[in-house]
Request: fold
Amino acid sequence: MLIFTPKITNRIKYTFQLVFSTVYNINHSLTDDIDFFKSYNFEKLNYSNKQIDDEFYLRPHGLLDEKGISDQDLNISKWNKLPIFFQVKNCILPFDIFSASFFLVSRYEEYLPHIKDRFGRFTAKESFAFKNNFLEIPLINLWLKEFQKIIELKFPKIIFPKKKFTYQSTIDIDNAYFFLEKGVVRTAASFIRSALQLDKESILERRDVLLGKLSDPYDTYDYQLKLNEKYNIDVVYFFLLADYGLNDKNCLTQSRKFQLLIKHLSDYAKTGIHPSYSSNDNIDKLLIEKKRLEDITKKEVKFSRQHFLKLEIPKTYRNLIELSISDDYTMGYASYFGFRASICTPFYFYDLEEELLTKLKIHPFSIMDATFKYYLKLNPHETLEKIKLIIDEVKNVDGHFISLWHNETWSNYKEWEGWMHLYEQMLIHIKK
Reply:
């Protein structure tokens, strides 16, 4: 499809690539030559402020011609039962689908002043999607599903490649073991704390695990591998390899047992770095942590997900790009489930401050185990019902569903008692 626009901006390049290449997977080209556009005798679309003849015409709102970041006056209305904004008149679509998609997927609102949580994160409740009740649906995919029907009616010769629902499991290893590999000082401190609390059970349990009489409750890896093999699941593991800190409390990075675990899991799954909480403000720390994983796996590290989901756009992504990370999996909320960028298709990061298309691929996840337990205070049965709804939304648009789990969720230990089988129940629904 040939697309005419009076000025080909980076925003226009990026957004039409998102729609036609990333989601639709069909060929398109842009032109600002109106004479060439008029003489073109095949499928074409006019994206400008003035209709030329009787061509397929979509009126722009103007966001893609702008530079810089400013408050946007957004008013919600409905189209085909879907919420829309950036409304336009006298057009086959009642809104600028390209500007609206760009606004959501670029995370435009996260560049604007906003209230952060205690960890310095943009929160779900601050988002335009949450405030307007569409966080739980992949709105961009739904818009484009309806838009595809219009294109097919206008241009019957255009063949849209068939898509299918896909799934990827991602597992964060924030704390590989509950008792083991914590070092002499931390282990001794834990014994003392349990003694002061008169917690004899914890003292005995920690002793037996350290002596090898009991397995560590967070050592659920064989069970994970069996489940993922049984259901033929594509998995990525993210490892926290930080120095000890207030919000970074995994095993000792020099622990041989921990390193052997990483090597073992990397034989069965993709691996990525889980950049520490403190590395978000220190790229030198991020480089050290990335190199630690590369030294252990003997593989170049290309995948990442921020610990605590501490994502500060664009700074966090710029740091990853500088260290040659190609794929990031942080795009989601800790406090609520759903679609932070309103899309369930991996997409490339656009740097709004620099007005720059980048090669960093963003893989948005839509559910996390800890969200349901710690933030929403749901039980496993209630959680499963919410997860099923999200899976069905992604299936409806033949999208890509990504879940985020932690190794302790399978432990059936302490606060995670009763959660052990939730993951497999989710997989069963995925495979239906």
